[in-house]
Amino acid sequence: MERMNVFDALDCTTVLDDPPAEVHVPAPRSPDTGGKVDLDRRQFLDRLLATGATGLAAALAGGYVLGSTVAPVFASDPEVSTKHKFRYGMVIDTRRCVGCKACMAACKTENKTPPGVYYTVVVEDTRNSEFDRPLFMTKPCFHCEHPPCTKVCPVSATFKREQDGIVVIDYDRCIGCRYCITACPYGARYFDFGENYDITDSGGAWADVPSPEYNQYRVREDGESPIGNVRKCTFCLHLQDADGKYSREEGRWPACAKTCTGHAIHFGDLIDPESEVSRLLVERQAVRLKEELGTEPNVYYLL
Amino acid sequence: MDIWLKRVFWAGGGLFFAIGIFGWFDRLSNGHLNTDYGSVIPWGLWVAAYVFFIGLSAGSFLISSLVYVFGVKRFESIGRIALFQALVTLTLALLSIWVDLGHMSRAFNVFAYPNFKSPMAWMIWLYTAYFALVAVELWFLLRRDLVVGARASGVRAKVYKVLSLGAKATSDESVNRDRKIVKVLATVGVPVAIMFHGGVGALFGVVAARPGWNSGLFPILFLLSALASGGALLMLVSAIFQGGYHRNSETIVALGRLVLGLLVLDVIFQASEWLVSGYGNVPGHVEGLKLIFSGPYWWVFWVWQLLLGTAIPIVILATKRGHSARWAAAAGGLIAVGFIGVRLNIVIPALATEEVVGLTSAVDNPRITTDYFPSVMEWAVTLGIVGLGLLMFGLGEYLLPNSSEEVSHVPA
């Protein structure tokens, strides 16, 4: 039984995607700086001082160890984590999913994942009789509140980012033991065995453009990371702006959600009560997979 | 050592080692490309081999501690070889898990950036301590013989000279001091060995996502199977080396009784685990068990593990045959080999189920499947590691002081 017209939900989003700036950010925003925060001189100096001090403290407190291996994208920016805190998540409407797998294709194109590595897969539940309507479900990483995968990593190479709750992997630290794959209850992690699609092996335009993943633009070479690493969905965090925000209008939106033909994949900030995802969770009945494990996924399914 | 046994031994070790060179070459030049595991079954033969070897090491160390901590006279003559076996099998275990890493050169990260919330980190730190401890303990155990041996001439003497690390003393006081040090090290080693091998059990046991592993019995089960398999291999090894079954016959028979008890205990624990997890008919638990008992590799359980590794050796050891050192040693060999099947059945079936229904049919890729059989390269690498172990035993027998020629080093 439909409790709400799904198209209404969609219409809401066009309004909600561009909320009044005051709702999200403390500082006034200027439209011509691409969403960047405008500061006056005083604020700028204060902020410089604050970051300078924390930077120095971090450097003193064993900064060398962290600085040498943690790419900038992994560093918890104090500004971001205190002033804008996000909890990105997805609400996936199984009634709207037609099983076209466009999300899988879009994800592969965006992240340029090799064969055998899928940041999302569309599973089809075929347990019911052939006369039943099939249940399709796209399954990205759930970016759990309590991720069992990060806990078991012997070198802390995979962790949950404080500022936005995205579970990431530091490719330069990961030793490739695959313990996290065994610990993930949702099959969201994949090992990069070093296989390539023909289009990558044969050179040309596709091979020349590196994956934008983590904004690292790594060139794919035998034996070099991410080959030999575990890989997973990042909610396309390379599309965030400096404040950690996505923008659907500017096309900076997780590839699967952006491309979803049935508008089944809804993405947004679960902390913001006005976001599309938060509204859908209030309005519709949602489930999360394997609640009994206490992982508290940030990806919900609408039935 | 009988001459034919010696020949079989060196030939087997050499052959396996040669096969291993091919495997290691492939592994080092092509990475994980030619492995058969994937992202659904991410751990395969190498992890099973690692659990097998590490169990042998913990088991033989704990048995050696019967001599050096508890002063059990009956096992005196095989104390040294037990410790040597602990060192050799530990080396093989570390090689097996090292080759399994996606980035072998980053193994050091576990020391540079340890995450002590991870049982894997506990384990690796404990191994390191254990490795150093076993090596030092073995050195003190052999020190006097090395110093004495270095005084002769020939290849062995040169090796002894190097291994003695410049030690000179051969007096009774120095030997007494060595004994005291050995006792302290062995005593410290007992909790370390229990912790790290219990830790290996915990490494699997804590994974709530895999119901087949997620049991409080796992750490205990691992300790029992370590003792049983380590003791069993020691029966075979002491029938071949250090005077062989002629000299060690009574010890082997005595060890056989101990191993029989441990094996029966292990079977009881394993049966209890399976009864409780299977009875409830909870799908996650039952799927793995079904694979063990009636999956495509049912014979690993029924033939390898149960018939060859458990039933036949129990019959041998529990009957009159068990009084013969040769039969007992053969039973020990069967138990040790049978435990490879146990390890495979611990690691793989619990992984070989879809975590989300439809996952493996969502994509058509050989890495996303619940089928796994080790590839040729995986076998070759593992055989190479086994071959290295055989050669290490052979070299140890050839080069290290022979306990059949030496004075007792056991603390009174």
Report on this model:
The complex is a heterodimer of chains A (303) and B (412). Chain A is α+β, with helices and mostly antiparallel strands. Chain A folds into two domains: 39-69; 71-302, Alpha-Beta Plaits (2-Layer Sandwich). Chain A has twelve helices and ten strands. Chain B is mostly helical and 412 residues long. Chain B has a single domain (3-399), classed as Formate dehydrogenase/DMSO reductase domain (Formate dehydrogenase/DMSO reductase fold), CATH 1.20.1630.10. In chain B, helix 1 packs across helix 14 (376-399), helix 3 crosses helix 8 and helix 8 (218-240) packs antiparallel against helix 12. The longest helix of chain B is centred in the middle third of the chain and has 36 residues, at 244-279. Chain B is globular and about 70 Å long. The two termini of chain B are 29 Å apart. The relative contact order of chain B is 0.18. Classes of the chains: A alpha+beta (303), B mainly alpha (412). The interface between A and B is large, with 54 and 48 residues.
Task: Set down the secondary structure blueprint.
The complex is a heterodimer of chains A (303) and B (412).
Chain A: H1 6-16, H2 21-24, H3 41-60, H4 63-69, H5 78-83, E1 88-93, H6 102-111, E2 121-125, E3 135-139, H7 148-152, E4 158-160, E5 167-169, H8 179-183, E6 189-191, H9 198-201, H10 205-208, E7 230-232, H11 255-259, E8 265-269, H12 276-283, E9 286-287, E10 299-302
Parallel strand pairs in A: 1-10
Antiparallel strand pairs in A: 1-8, 2-3, 4-5, 6-7, 9-10
Chain B: H1 3-30, H2 45-68, H3 79-100, H4 109-112, H5 119-150, H6 155-163, H7 172-205, H8 218-240, H9 244-279, H10 283-294, H11 298-318, H12 325-347, H13 359-362, H14 376-399
Short structural summary:
The complex is a heterodimer of chains A (303) and B (412). Chain A has 303 residues and is an alpha+beta fold.
